[in-house]
Specification:
With about 425 residues, the chain is of the alpha+beta class. It has helices at about 15-35, 50-55, 60-65, 85-95, 140-155, 170-185, 195-200, 215-220, 230-245, 290-295, 310-315, 335-355, 370-375, 390-395, 410-425; strands at about 40, 45-50, 70, 75-80, 105-110, 125-135, 160-165, 250-255, 265-275, 280-285, 300-310, 330-335, 360, 380-385, 395-400, 410. It folds into two domains: about 15-170 and about 230-315, BirA Bifunctional Protein, domain 2 (2-Layer Sandwich), CATH 3.30.930.10; about 330-425, Anticodon-binding domain (Rossmann fold), CATH 3.40.50. The chain is about 40% helix and about 20% strand. The longest helix is centred in the first third of the chain and has 20 residues, at about 15-35. Bound molecules: adenosine-5'-triphosphate and magnesium ion. Magnesium ion binds next to loops.
């Protein structure tokens, strides 16, 4: 036998036992997106490397060490997308979608980062993101946050996540703050770890983002951004906070929240959880009013977020198991050749009349016992049985597989009514 080929480290298969969580999240997001007026956009997984360098920033973790970059056969430098915003912005600029008009967009799909794989951190992972263009005010920031809060509510995750907010101000305010930070860290040079030493010269704000406990302690003493915030940004932030309060969304202002990417300004936010160890951020975003000009577009206010699906799935898998949405209602057991023939016809009739019915038909023969074993394993609520007796009387037997209840032989009309109730959850 030849050796088995294994998947790439950090790139996971999503197996059937997990996929119902994914579907639940994706369906909830698609429905919510439509409810708030967001349209889906799909962009390529591969883009020119330059796009990510220019948008995410040269001195960020992603561009410095996490990108999957390669030369294609023409010698062009291409990169597997590490996040979705850059491609989305490129696409809307290219298609002229933000020219004198606003847009509410969302996307989903795989992202790629060469990180050290661990729980909640993978090399191919999936994000769902939303972006809104040409809205300058705090109302749209609030809308995006409210949408995510509603998603947590629908997924039963509200108790597990908390909202952190901060404002990164205007670029002038960031420049002034940056100077104050550099002066502060220069005074504490000897306490900086290697990463922070490096960032001090290139991107000192990112030192605030450090997870190293020593740095976290030092960062608590650093100058606060709030003292440098410009009036317009302060006002924007205050209005956002008020809107969130009015709709009952609790938040925590975290002055150390700076986000990893270069393109943010004004509002930044993260939804974090304590339930996943170090990989605690499940959704992150903010305003990036400067990015579109950086990518050759006109000045266009923009705000968005991305959430990691794997981390949400991890949270959902920690909850008590609910019956998965794709569990069959019924499993059709067929004994003998004639029943097998008739079973195919019956199943198709039922599906025709009850489009919501999830019915698995037994294929491949086998004893009654083994068929019932499979019926049970399928998770179905009931077994339908076609054997000699049923064929002779033109009826179908129904046997409850969960809880108590007797096996009964039914006419097709009664069977249909029972299955209809089952589909409506009234069995
Ligand atoms: P982290 O601080 O965890 O590295 P990040 O700031 O790099 O996150 P973003 O670029 O803001 O993350 O991506 C948004 C979300 O995508 C994260 O909050 C997380 O849920 C998810 N995510 C990011 N990187 C990974 C990864 N390598 N594996 C799985 N999910 C990820
Ligand atoms: Mg990261």
């Amino acid at each position: 036998m030849s050796q088995k080929i294994q998947a790439i480290r950090g790139m996971n298969d999503i197996l059937p036992e997990q996929s119902h969580h994914w579907q639940r999240i994706e369906e909830a997001v698609a429905t919510l997106a439509a409810a708030y007026g967001y349209c889906e956009i799909r962009t390529p997984i591969v883009e020119k490397t330059e796009l990510f360098k220019r948008s995410i920033g040269e001195v960020t973790d992603i561009v410095e060490k996490e990108m999957y970059t390669f030369n294609d056969r023409n010698g062009d430098s291409l990169t597997l997308r590490p996040e979705g915003t850059a491609g989305c912005v490129r696409a809307v600029l290219e298609a002229g979608l933000v020219h004198n008009q606003s847009q509410r967009l969302w996307y989903r799909g795989p992202m790629f980062r060469h990180e050290r794989p661990q729980q909640g951190r993978y090399r191919q992972f999936y994000q769902i993101g939303m972006e809104a263009f040409n809205f300058a005010g705090p109302d749209i920031d609030a809308e995006l946050i409210m949408l995510t809060a509603r998603l947590w509510q629908q997924l039963g995750l509200t108790d597990q996540v908390t909202l952190q907010l901060n404002s990164l101000g205007s670029s002038a305010a960031r420049a002034a703050y940056r100077e104050a930070l550099v002066a502060f860290y220069n005074q504490h040079q000897s306490h900086l770890d290697a990463d922070s030493q490096r960032r001090l010269g290139s991107n000192p704000l990112r030192i605030l983002d450090s997870k190293n406990p020593d740095m976290v302690a030092l960062n608590r003493l650093a100058p606060a951004f709030s003292d440098y915030l410009d009036v317009a940004s302060r006002d924007h932030f205050q209005q956002l906070c008020e809107m969130l309060e009015r709709v009952g969304i609790a938040y925590e202002v975290n002055p150390l929240l700076v986000r990893g990417l270069d393109y943010y300004s004004k509002t930044v936010f993260e939804w974090v959880t304590n339930a996943l160890g170090a990989q605690g951020t499940v959704c992150a975003g903010g305003r990036y009013d400067g990015l579109l000009t950086q990518l050759g577009g006109r000045e266009t206010p923009a705000v968005g977020f991305a959430m990691g699906i794997e981390r949400l799935v991890l949270l959902l898998s920690q909850q008590p198991e609910v019956v998965a949405a794709n569990t069959p209602h019924a499993y059709l057991v067929v004994m003998g050749d004639a029943a097998q023939q008739q079973g195919v016809v019956l199943a198709e009739q039922l599906r025709q009349q009850l489009p919501q019915l999830r019915l698995v038909t037994h294929c491949g023969g086998g004893s009654l016992k083994s068929q019932f074993k499979q019926a049970d394993r399928s998770g179905a609520a009931v077994a339908l049985i076609l054997a000699a007796e049923e064929l002779a009387s033109g009826q179908v037997s129904l046997k409850p597989l969960r809880g108590t209840g007797e096996q009964v032989m039914l006419t097709e009309a009664v069977l249909l009514a029972k299955l209809q109730n089952l589909c409506e959850g009234e069995y």
